[in-house]
Design brief:
This protein is of the alpha+beta class. The chain has helices at about 5-25, 100-105, 110-125, 130-135, 140-155, 175-245, 250-265, 280-290, 295, 320-345, and strands at about 25-30, 35-40, 45-50, 50-55, 60-65, 70-80, 85-100, 160-170. Among the domains are: about 5-65, no CATH class; about 70-170, Tetrahydropterin Synthase, Chain A; about 175-225. Belongs to the band 7/mec-2 family.
């Protein structure tokens, strides 16, 4: 092969290589959700949208490829001082999306780093006006303030901040220990209060139940007593009506009375038995019913006016008539009254009137004038 042919082949290869490179640089395919910034001779030319584009080789040059999807960036913990001089570490998460690729490329060198630093400074300003308790309980408020400041600052960068979240707030270890003790004490206090409320309600319900039970028991006893009294009243009325319908005479009533006397005296604690005064009348009625003299049945003894000795009514002798005994008792009472009056006058030294002899007993001596 001659040297001229070799040179020709080399030239053809260089031409083919140059044409391929030119075609590769002239054709640009942009993926979906992506934008390409194109510069012509060092100056901004246009923004390529998704699709097939043709560039001028060696004149147009792609500057940057911008991803238009929403991006999530988590920043490392940042120490922040609260208003009560406590240092807390806060992790933040930023959700943002580029809306203007040209501004995102030309307005800031690195918009992710800019967002991070802007988040740290804004977070320190917001947390510096809150104490630790407010910081722990006001996450929504802090997120809203951060989003407002970041969205306003990153708008000229062609970035829209959608959400800002505080991923973690870590106070110092000593503060965490104190907070845990405080929470434990608070929970113990609530548990004690709930237990006391339960005991109180239980006691109230128990007292109400006892009250209702006592009321119902008292009402039952009252009703039982009323019903018992009504039953006894009806029984007495029925017995009374039966006695009247049977036309019971005093003899039968006296006999029933005597049958009840042993039951009255029955009892282990009885030391003395008092005989009712109606016993003589009952005995007289029974004696008369049996055909005897009522005076014989009377257990009452009297003294004889002649001998002064008490006669035994049960010695087998006939007793005197009750009318005569009554008359004799009246005469003895009159004689005793006259004797007492004479003694009183004799004691006073005056004259006494002779006391007539009634024939019962010995007349008192007459005072000598």
């Amino acid at each position: 092969m001659e040297p001229g042919d070799t040179i020709l082949l080399i030239v053809l290869a260089l031409v083919v290589l140059m044409v391929g490179t030119t075609i590769a640089k002239a054709i640009r395919i942009v993926p979906q959700a992506t934008s390409v910034i194109v510069e012509r001779l060092g100056r901004y030319s246009r923004t390529l949208e998704p699709g097939l584009h043709f560039l001028v080789p060696f004149v147009d040059r792609p500057r940057a490829v911008v991803d238009l999807r929403e991006q999530v960036v988590s920043f490392p913990p940042q120490p922040v001082i609260t208003s009560d001089n406590l240092v807390v570490n806060i992790d933040t998460v930023i959700y943002f999306q580029p809306t203007d690729p040209k501004a995102a490329v030309y307005e800031i060198y690195n918009y992710i780093q800019g967002i991070e630093q802007l988040t740290v400074t804004t977070l320190r300003n917001v947390i510096g006006s809150l104490d630790l308790e407010q910081t722990l309980t006001s996450r929504d408020q802090i997120n809203g303030q951060l989003r407002g400041v970041l969205d306003e600052a990153t708008g000229r960068w062609g970035i829209r901040v959608n959400r800002v979240e505080l991923k973690a707030i870590d106070p110092p270890a000593s503060v965490q220990d104190s907070m845990e003790k405080q929470m434990r004490a608070e929970r113990d206090r609530r548990a004690a209060i709930l237990n006391a409320e339960g005991v109180k309600q239980s006691q109230i319900l128990t007292a109400e139940g006892d009250k209702q039970s006592a009321i119902l028991r008292a009402e039952g006893q009252a009703q039982a007593a009323v019903l018992k009294a009504q039953g006894e009243s009806k029984a007495i009325l029925q017995v009374f009506d039966a006695i009247h319908r049977g036309d019971a005479d005093p003899k039968l009533l006296a006999y029933q009375y005597l049958q009840m006397l042993p039951q009255i005296a029955n009892g282990t604690a009885s030391k003395m038995w008092i005989v009712p005064t109606e016993l003589t009348q009952a005995l007289s009625s029974i004696s008369g019913a049996l055909g005897g003299d009522p005076a014989v049945a009377s257990p009452t003894a009297y003294r004889s006016p002649d001998t002064g000795i008490a006669d035994n009514p049960f010695d087998g002798t006939q007793l005197e008539d009750p009318n005569e005994a009554l008359e004799r008792a009246r005469q003895e009472a009159a004689g005793a009254s006259a004797e007492a009056e004479a003694d009183s006058r004799r004691a006073s030294g005056g004259a006494t009137t002779p006391i007539p002899n009634t024939g019962y007993g010995t007349p008192p001596e007459q005072p000598q004038g």
